[in-house]
Amino acid sequence: MARSWQLQKAKAQFSALIDTSAAEGPQIVTRHGRPAAIVLSPADYDRLRHRASDFKRFLRKARLHELDLERNPDRGRKIRL
């Protein structure tokens, strides 16, 4: 589970924030109690980028146009207004 840092604390302890993201994973920075940013290590970022490109590659090779998809002709029920 990602640790949450208030923006003021993240600014004051930026080195610790960076070290923690490398050691423990993504860190959430909040502003006024709401998530504002996520700090990732370079390894986590690269892993996410490659996962996205793998998905794109999968979709390009999937031949989705060859799928025989049949739509349900049911249009719902008629109601009286």
- In what order do the strands lie side by side in the largest sheet? 1-2-3
Oligomer designation: single chain
Percent helix, as a range, is 40-55%
CATH superfamily: YefM-like domain
Domain module tally: 1
Q: Please trace the helix and strand order, writing H or E for each element.
A: EHHEEH
Kindly provide the name of the CATH class.
Alpha Beta
Strand content: 15-25%
Radius of gyration equals 23 Å
End-to-end separation: 51 Å
Q: Give the mean pLDDT.
A: 88
Overall, the morphology is elongated
CATH topology type: YefM-like fold
Helix/strand/pairing category? alpha+beta
Major sheet details = 3 strands, mixed
Got a strand count?
3
| Shape-level CATH architecture | 3-Layer(aba) Sandwich
Highlighted features:
single chain, 81 residues, alpha+beta, YefM-like fold, three-stranded mixed β-sheet, 3 strands, elongated
